[in-house]
Amino acid sequence: MEANGPKEEDNRRQVIPGPTNPMVTPLLSDLYQFSMAYAYWKAGKNNERAVFDLYFRKNPFGGEYTIFAGLEECIRFIANFKFKEEEIAFIQASLPKTCEDGFYDYLRGIDCSDVEVYAVSEGSVVFPKVVQLLETSFLNLINYASLVTTNAARHRSVAGKSKILLEFGLRRAQGPDGGIGASKYSYLGGFDATSNVEAGRLFGIPVRGTHSHAFVSSFMSPDEIMEKSLQTRDGSSTCEDFVSLRSHVLRGIFGETNQSELAAFTSYALAFPNNFLALVDTYDVMRSGIPNFCAVALALNDLGYKAIGIRLDSGDLAYLSCESRKFFRTIEKEFGVPDFGKMGITASNDLNEETLDALNKQGHEVDSFGIGTYLVTCYAQAALGCVFKLVEINNQPRIKLSEDVSKVSIPCKKRCYRLYGKEGYPLVDIMTGENEPPPKVAERILCRHPFNESKRAYVVPQRVEELLKCFWPGSPDKPREELPPLKMIRNRCSNQLEQMRPDHVRRLNPTPYKVSVSAKLYDFIHFLWLNEAPVGELQ
Amino acid sequence: MEANGPKEEDNRRQVIPGPTNPMVTPLLSDLYQFSMAYAYWKAGKNNERAVFDLYFRKNPFGGEYTIFAGLEECIRFIANFKFKEEEIAFIQASLPKTCEDGFYDYLRGIDCSDVEVYAVSEGSVVFPKVVQLLETSFLNLINYASLVTTNAARHRSVAGKSKILLEFGLRRAQGPDGGIGASKYSYLGGFDATSNVEAGRLFGIPVRGTHSHAFVSSFMSPDEIMEKSLQTRDGSSTCEDFVSLRSHVLRGIFGETNQSELAAFTSYALAFPNNFLALVDTYDVMRSGIPNFCAVALALNDLGYKAIGIRLDSGDLAYLSCESRKFFRTIEKEFGVPDFGKMGITASNDLNEETLDALNKQGHEVDSFGIGTYLVTCYAQAALGCVFKLVEINNQPRIKLSEDVSKVSIPCKKRCYRLYGKEGYPLVDIMTGENEPPPKVAERILCRHPFNESKRAYVVPQRVEELLKCFWPGSPDKPREELPPLKMIRNRCSNQLEQMRPDHVRRLNPTPYKVSVSAKLYDFIHFLWLNEAPVGELQ
């Protein structure tokens, strides 16, 4: 923002249509950004060109990869960037009275038509230090988006491809938007559906849900059900007393089950004969929930409907899912109902990566997992430490030093490439200065650790992918990348993860993926470092 | 929502003016709520009266208290509750096609005029199991709000009353709204200001900020500064070369300091002569940052201005703050500048409860703390497990059983009281049935653990406070509680915490505060439990 003066000659500001987050305004910003903008303006530095890097230093969740997400929201933000009068009034009230009026006129005039954004495509696998964005402060939009997407991808990876993953986190999310963002980015990271209706409406994510314990306990007995008739699925006839249709099944075989539960299931099946999915653990799964479910599912079957399945929300999910499966298979055999043994089993209840992994190890019969709190709040690590550093101003490189080497920034406007090996796996990412020639296929290139002199390797890439693409504003010779629909971003994420060498993305002790700099950039970093180091240390 | 039919005779729906969260719509809900609403409607149960409890089971952060927050947003939500046509269309698209049209007409007609909300006042200290709200699903709005408020209160408690606490979390918050909510509820929990400008505008929270490392590294040398003049504070004269005013101080005493840092400080002081607060750790705190700051602060002093202070964002904050303090005191003495030794010192850099505590133990000279990630994401525990349980329907009590006793719900519509002892401390909270006589001052009352027979105590309260008040909709004989301004809620929070017996709120091994039920409610819970327990266990 600081380097962005008003432009009279053209106006490339374009409102990108589509769902924008109503919480995101130019004021969603730290006050210091406005203080600094004023100081820059006062010092006449507002027309200088600055280059910023946005990156993170450490992969989350003890892993060795991160999925980059949030780019579309950033681009929408800058595309729509314009101060409203009431916002300028509030900035004026927040800054000292000594600030000159000219500054507020300057704010009135600015937009982001002069800002350039180069970024990795959303949904890409990325690694620490690789720059994802240049210019302005998208930290809020990127940090949580990338974190929850990565979290979702990790859950997908443990659950396996064949399972259905449902995001159930709205109630525990960090605020309403936390809930909506969580749904969007969980889908991006590989989830199949959400329970959050608003997220479904905004982003076209499939929406799923069943009923709660409260629904079950709100019934007393089947006598309460007034409307008992149900048409057969083909519409050919009507069963006048669906409630009693299979009640003999219960009396004959299973003994007495909870009657308020049976009433709730019956009532739900009458409302959703094609979508009967019952929560079976309100009272006792094996003694009441499963027999009640089976009686109602068999009654539906008599009328030509097929029940969807059950949900388990407590207890030993491995054991209960296996026992339920046995039960369903017995029903299939005893009652001659084809495929009843394949009845869907959904599990929920504070699931996370570890519990999925434990379930896999124990063996289970769960088909779908509903995951909430641990997914959406990123409980295992609630924040990603993205930072935003100045790396160049007016073509002068800038470096941020630190006693902690991992916090030293890599100066200059850069290009980034991913180099692929013979097997098709990415081997290493390399950053170069903006004007260096790009790495070439089949040509040896030296890849150096940015700070550790001894870490270096020659690589002969079989394929070279340029990572940073122009997302804003674009020009005839540098066309703007399209913002793909969410589903395509989701595919990119899944494809990129599959393309990785498995040891980089495994859950336990993954191998770090290397991010390097070119020999020229290495030399330049260390030349600058010497020149900028604190005077005291040079003495 | 389920129990809420359309009302023709009156319309108590009232739009409450003030900032509402644009993300919160009736669709910000799990699909199962609509599925269940349909099943209830289909079963003709939509006009029944249901009572729900919203509560949590365990205090967060290893503590023994929680601050209740989010109520105002809930009340605004129900006051404005009304489906839009496009929302109904989306629900229709999400539910099975077999659902009858009459249901959507029903949705068109409903609002929340028939819902009653009884709650503890926002900003109150609350404990597990005490019911905070009756009816509808406010979990999203309550969970994070209460969590981050409690987190803020805990940080305040460790930092002590005299320190200034600044919330700096926007960039790491879980989405834009997570950032705004974090600022609001951190303020509620005892923070003094936020860096988030939008939160300042929406809620009137004081906004604070200084500059970043990028500002410092964007300058090369003092020669860059074009406009070097600064008026004296009283306007009586103008210093033509502020930049050189005290440069001899540096040359004479401190040796060479980083020139781009000096340029940045000078420039910032020219822009904000009354609000000069400098980030001093870009290069080297003691060799460059502090001397540069002092030179500029002394120059400001020459012209009648008073610098605000410094910010430390890395390194050993205890050591650096003490060394800086010594430096400032020496300057006060050497240059005869009164109060220079009291210069403000702000610290930031991944602070949390533990680091504040460690700083206190080491001894430090920090006046203000800027706290971000750990505060706003509630890193130590990223979710509060609020639940929402049906406890009564059509005057029939409902109980949710579980093999885990802590998960058994307490049936019936209830009243809650806080009983105070002689010293003025709260002794115990007690829940009673709705129609039981309230506890009386100076009268002995038996308080029982809801599930453990042997845990019981007689209490003679010196003061009795009814906790659940009517927040919606109110009536002539039961007037609605006002929604107080944020500042008053903040005061309530601080007063309530001060009123607690210290061992309940201390950081290490706090004493659990007891929540009890009346003898009558105890007997009733256990009577119901026997009757509702799974059949198998009764055999």
TrEMBL record, chains A, B:
Residues 413-524 form the Nicotinate phosphoribosyltransferase C-terminal domain. Keywords: Glycosyltransferase, Ligase, Magnesium, Manganese, Metal-binding, Phosphoprotein, Pyridine nucleotide biosynthesis, Transferase. GO terms for molecular function: glycosyltransferase activity; metal ion binding; nicotinate phosphoribosyltransferase activity. It comes from Camellia sinensis. Residues 166-407 form the Nicotinate/nicotinamide phosphoribosyltransferase domain. Its cofactor is Mg(2+); Mn(2+). InterPro entries: Aldolase_TIM, N/Namide_PRibTrfase, NAPRTase_C, NAPRTase_N, Nic_PRibTrfase-Fam, Nic_PRibTrfase_pncB, Nicotinate_pribotase-like_C. This is Nicotinate phosphoribosyltransferase.
